[in-house]
């Protein structure tokens, strides 16, 4: 099983440029453009990561890679579209934790079986969850936030992009680890939640870094901590949750998948191409500007990672009695 320590090694390896011999010729993807489905609306973190990856994959595979947005059900609809497409290697999905590791274990209606129908290609990137508060809240650190919540039980609301989303589970993990009484307020996406956070309608929120960075830079929100294993160069003075005394790790992540019916040699070809793309210096730089870290790795490592994440977030969901059915 791929541990977080092994994952750190994969991230470090992804930053090392390697020589690029020709791709293996034991498999061939049929002629025509390759679809890279993003199961979320345009403009979000997942979409930005996919478009950079698509450009690099197209150059490596010598194909036109077309990014296609098919949003709905927390990423499940777009992922399902690819899983049920023609198994020729020309349909890929940049899915997320919610669609293949969280929704299935929280009882959401699933049109596919992750273990049987989804072929993991590679883990593409980790996206840290940033904990922020509005300037109107009189706290400047995790310790002060915990103290405030304990003095005001049940009066601190935290927003999220929806029930069962990574921001929701990060909030529940924080609640349990800190021993505080806070109330979840789900929204239909990150944007309206951030708007209410700025206005003080909710008092705290975890979100993918790009969803709040412009507001943080404009001093409309105060960054408190990163629910990640390390600090971000974009916010070097912001500690991790562990450094702040509440060890919550809740990186969101994006992974490349296709239908399990795609022949194994073609899956291997796609994995090799994606691994090369994720070592490209321009891609590494573009991801860093969004706060993301490229990963890469083998199909087996990604499969083990999905299993581990499913178990971890399933436990958080069970303890918090979160159901998506």
Automatic annotation (TrEMBL):
CDD domains: PBP2_Bug27
InterPro entries referenced in this protein's UniProt entry, alphabetically: BUG, Bug_dom1
Keywords: Signal
Keyword Transport included in the entry's annotation: no
Keyword Transport in annotation: no
Region forming the signal peptide: 1-24
Pfam families referenced in this protein's UniProt entry, alphabetically: TctC (PF03401)
Family: Belongs to the UPF0065 (bug) family.
Listed name of the protein: Tripartite tricarboxylate transporter substrate binding protein
């Amino acid at each position: 099983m791929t541990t977080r320590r092994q994952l750190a090694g994969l991230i470090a390896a992804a930053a090392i440029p390697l020589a690029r011999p020709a791709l293996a010729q034991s498999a061939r993807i049929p002629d025509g453009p390759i679809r890279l489905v993003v199961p979320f609306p345009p403009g979000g973190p997942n979409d930005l990561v996919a478009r950079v990856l698509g450009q690099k994959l197209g150059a490596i595979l010598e194909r036109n890679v077309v990014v296609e947005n098919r949003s709905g059900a927390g990423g499940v609809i777009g992922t399902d579209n690819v899983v049920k497409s023609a198994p020729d290697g020309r349909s890929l999905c940049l899915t997320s934790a919610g669609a293949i590791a969280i929704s299935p274990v929280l009882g959401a209606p699933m049109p596919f079986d992750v273990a049987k129908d989804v072929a993991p290609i590679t883990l593409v990137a980790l996206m840290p969850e940033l904990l922020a508060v509005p300037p109107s809240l009189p706290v400047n650190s995790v310790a002060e936030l915990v103290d405030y919540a304990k003095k005001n039980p049940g009066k601190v609301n935290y927003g999220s992009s929806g029930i069962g989303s990574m921001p929701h589970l990060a909030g529940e993990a924080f609640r349990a680890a800190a021993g505080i009484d806070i109330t979840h307020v789900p929204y239909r996406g990150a944007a309206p939640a951030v708007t209410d956070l700025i206005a003080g309608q909710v008092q705290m929120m975890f979100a993918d870094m790009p969803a709040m960075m412009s507001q943080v830079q404009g001093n409309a929100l105060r960054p408190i901590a990163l629910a990640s294993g390390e600090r971000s160069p974009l916010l070097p003075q912001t500690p991790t949750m562990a450094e702040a005394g509440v060890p919550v790790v809740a990186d969101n992540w994006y992974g490349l998948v296709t239908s399990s019916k795609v022949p194994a040699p073609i899956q291997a070809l796609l994995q090799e191409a994606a691994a090369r793309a994720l070592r490209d210096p321009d891609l590494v730089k573009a991801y860093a500007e969004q706060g993301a870290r490229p990963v890469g790795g083998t199909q087996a490592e990604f499969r083990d990672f999905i299993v581990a994440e499913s178990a971890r977030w399933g436990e958080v969901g069970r303890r918090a009695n979160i159901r998506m059915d």
